[in-house]
Amino acid sequence: PIVTDQLCVKGEVPPDALPPFQCCPPASASEPINFTFPDPGEPLRTRRLVHVVGDEYMAKYARAVALMKSLPVSDPRSFYQQANVHCAYCTGAHRQAGRPDLGVQIHFSWLFFPFHRAYLYFFERIAAKLLGDPGFALPIWSWDVPEGMGIPEAFADVASPLYDPIREPSHAPPKVADLDFFLQGEKNLTDQQLILHNLRVMYRQMVSGATLPSLFLGQPYRAGDPEMPGPGTVEWAPHNTMHTWTGDNSRPNAENMGAYYSAGRDPLFYPHHGNIDRLWETWRNDIVGPDGSRRRHADFTDPDWLDSSFLLYDEEARLVRITVRDVLDADKLRYTYGDVAVPWLAARP
Ligand code: C2O
Q1: Which helix (H) or strand (E) holds 121?
Q2: For a tag on the chain, would you pick the N or C end, based on fewer CB atoms within 10 A?
Q3: In this structure, which topology does domain 4-346 adopt according to CATH?
Q4: Smallest Cα–Cα separation from 7: which of 25, 34, 33?
Q5: Which residue positions form the known binding site?
Q6: Residue ranges of the binding site for Cu cation
Q7: What CA–CA distance (Å, rounded) separates 238 from 297?
Q8: What residues does each domain of the chain span?
């Protein structure tokens, strides 16, 4: 398995990157503790869609981000360090245990879904703790349903803590998103045509192209392997494509959202990954095949996947070691997505 070591060095940031260039989280004075599940009596957080939760709830997320932004930058729970955590795991800054010559890269492999789940889990709990609202759940940017296919208004208000000035200006709302954007560049479609196109992209990535764990979750990546063996369908698109579509395309690296090292600096990153995580749950439980049969997809059972582990800071600022095995049951992590419509299931091309 890929076991993340506490050792973190300067990762590989691309040319023309925007500072800071060093993204290792603050060093922990003590050894990491092993992850334990939250109390099963904790309220179940329901992560709802941005366009469904309403302005008041979005104001709560804005307040959480503002609170994280107001923590000292030396605090691993600060917005600054949370963004850095993502940067560290994307630039190979963390080393593999016992292999100080090899970095940990959590993209383009089977680590993609579980890493981001663990990362959001702690991010959400930090937000809840700072808000003093134990039931707080992250809102979800559901770009796969027509009502969510564009940057939500709450993120476009320049006075809001959810605003990020480093985005593609021509993709501000009410622009309809293009879910396979970087594959073909800007398309010449009406909004209605683009929505239909997006639903078909979703069908391909979630149903016809994602019949096996390796196709959906990504290729195996084991200790000592070269990084980035290959992404799953959804990691490639809409995940990567929506990153690029959101970031400033006039910049060489399409910051902030369009580059791994800087994506976590945009408060939209977290609702974006909430949707990715929701699609993992959907793939496992709710896909209905062309013949009408319900398909439940199983994850990998390979111990090299299950025993891979990451180091992340929790809501008490303790460094925690969490494994892939730990994140496979959302209920045990005390969150759910409730019932969300999946209109693309009917969009078989
Ligand atoms: Cu770690 Cu959306 O990227």
Answers
A1: helix 112-131
A2: C
A3: di-copper center containing domain from catechol oxidase (1.10.1280)
A4: 25
A5: 86, 107, 116, 239, 243, 273
A6: 86, 107, 116, 239, 243, 273
A7: 20
A8: 4-346
List beta partners, residue 77. none
| Coarse DSSP helix, strand, coil percentages of the chain, rounded to the nearest 5 percent | 40, 10, 50
Residue 309's beta-bridge partner residues? Answer: 3, 323
Quick one: pLDDT band at residue 294, thresholds 50, 70, 90?
confident
Which of the four pLDDT bands, split at 50, 70 and 90, describes residue 290?
Answer: low
The SS3 assignment for 4 reads: strand
Q: Does the predicted model carry a pTM greater than 0.95?
A: yes
The DSSP H or E segment spanning 87 is helix 79-90
Q: Encoding tokens for residue 242?
A: 């929506």
SS3 for 310?
A: strand
Which residue in 228, 229, 233, 237 sits closest to 213, CA to CA? Answer: 233
Residue 259 CA to ligand 1 center (angstroms) comes to: 9
Q: How far is the CA of 260 from the centre of ligand 1 (A)?
A: 6
CA separation for the pair 227, 300 (Å, rounded): 19
Dist. CA 179–CA 190, nearest whole Å: 14
